[in-house]
Amino acid sequence: MALSGVEIFKLLPKTNCKKCGFPTCLAFAMKLAQRQTTLDKCPDVSEEAKKILGEASAPPVRPITFGTGDKAVKMGEETVLFRHEKKFVNPNAFVLEIKDTEDDATVDAKINDVLTSEINRVGQLLRVDGICITNDSGDAGKFGALAEKVASKAPDVGVVVNTESPEGAEAALKHFSGKGAVLYGVTAENAEKMVEIAKNNKVAVGIKADGLEAAAELTEKVKSLGVEDIVIDSGARKASEILEHNTLIRRAAIKKNFKPLGYPIINFVQRDDAMYEALVAGLGVCKYSSIVVMSSAEKWKNLALFTLRQNIYTDPQVPMQVEQKIYKIGEPTPDSPLLITTNFSLTYFIVSGEIENSKVPAWLAVMDCEGLSVLTAWAAGKFTGAKIANFIKESGIEKEIKHRELIIPGYVAILSGAIEEKLEGWKVTVGPREANGLPAFLRSRAA
Ligand code: SF4
Predict the structure, then answer these.
(1) Is 133 a member of any domain?
(2) Are 234 and 308 in the same domain?
(3) Which span out of 54-58, 226-230, 320-324 was modeled with the highest average pLDDT?
(4) Model confidence over 377-404: pLDDT tens digits?
(5) How far is the CA of 57 from the centre of ligand 1 (A)?
(6) Cβ(137) to ligand 1 under 6 A?
(7) What is the mean pLDDT of residues 288-315?
(8) Domain boundary pick from 286, 312, 338
(9) Residue 363's domain spans which residues?
(10) How far is CA 372 from CA 204, 327, 383, 406, 415, in A?
(11) Taking 70 as the threshold, does the pLDDT of residue 434 lie above it?
């Protein structure tokens, strides 16, 4: 069971030395109880306390890294059931299945689908994160050949090695040793041999169980055999089962601190109908899946699922925002127009996109309004004449441009007088209310 802040405090040195970055041991204990810091921040904690607290302060869902390098995906570490309670921490990975019974052209096309899946959405790079190679043939040689091909063509991509055969696992895993792969297909029957192979290749283990009780027993068995990086497949395949099992697993881990189910979940959502598959994959995204294995990665499906994942894993208490600064759109000169907007990501990307569409190079002043959109920031008193004037003065833009004209969004036309009052020598021009009016607006001025 998780310990309370006071229970944790009793086990700390109580010297209030501040080495942990908190003013007192009690403050540190409270943060530890809320899982907002880690025990290793206190250098003086006793070995006995470490033993007790280490277990109690470990995240309820064990963190595991899938893949290596820039594209590695961290999974687990979740602490809440609902994102409005705090936030969901580590987005799930989307993984495309490739079977060793599929022909070369299909295999090549699928590898290419993964490698070309990346899109940039509001400043974040989103992609299909991995490949699941499945030993459909039952032939270890064929499986090893597929593994070799995937390893050479997609060396930076995380891989799930899907087989219940120790021979197949040996043949495939040697190509992904130490690369953050998951050996999936560990059952009660093959656990001893498979876990040994996983250990030798330094990869995580994916257990394949039939139901939640069996899953809990199997994770304990794998742990006793020496592997703690585990992902859970409870056997759920229907949408209703995925919803039920995933919810029960997360609830057991978070609310009961039930360690045997405190691991990331892998869901297999493959369907013949791509639309249906997208729906079930979306269910996995919303309800606690850490690895979603799919049979296809069409662009339309990727876009829908990436967008859903991005939204589910955005901190609901922190609006998405971009850095406050003067952005160059195109190659602006000292005579190019200067526009201003707020630093809400969506606002920035829409406004900058429309300026790009105009083909008129421009300076775009993006002001920190804590990630609020223009009207909301104005209503909240964060986008005012005085604040805009200060920002423009301190931004250094006066050294870059010859003119002294600032174009403001049409929705805050009311600010023009206040800005001109505070920004001596400047002229304020009211731009269009909607960003899609910018191309015509800027082109007509440039003509
Ligand atoms: S470092 Fe340890 S002993 Fe020092 S204040 Fe923090 S919790 Fe207390």
Answers:
(1) yes
(2) yes
(3) 226-230
(4) 999 999 999 999 999 999 999 999 999 9
(5) 16
(6) no
(7) 96
(8) 312
(9) 325-446
(10) 41, 18, 9, 20, 17
(11) yes
